[in-house]
Design goal:
Radius of gyration: 15 Å
Helix content: 25-40%
Largest sheet: 3 strands, antiparallel
Strand order of the largest sheet: 2-1-3
Distance between the termini: 28 Å
């Protein structure tokens, strides 16, 4: 379970599937979407996205996406980059 006491969670959703044609965002079969998961930060979502994208590199129609759920849940919130929060 993720630690929620150390601050806000910036939830990210990773999913993918086979597209009908290259250059589109329309999926061939919604029943076959690959729901990778929900992650507590962008870094862990990117790691999961990269693993799935690299595993399906031989299928040009397969695409994975990262959805910034925190932006949908709190559209007016201002994001502070992780390195800025640490003073870097």
């Amino acid at each position: 379970m993720s630690d929620t006491t150390s601050g806000k969670q910036l939830l990210h959703f990773v999913f993918g599937g086979e597209l009908e044609k290259l250059g589109s965002n329309r999926f061939r079969d919604l029943d076959k979407l690959d729901i990778v998961g929900v992650f507590p930060d962008y870094s862990s979502a990117l790691t999961a996205w990269r693993a799935k994208a690299q595993a399906t590199v031989d299928n040009a129609h397969m695409r994975y996406f990262i959805v910034h759920m925190h932006r949908l849940l709190e559209p007016g919130a201002v994001e502070v980059p992780a390195d800025a929060a640490r003073g870097g």
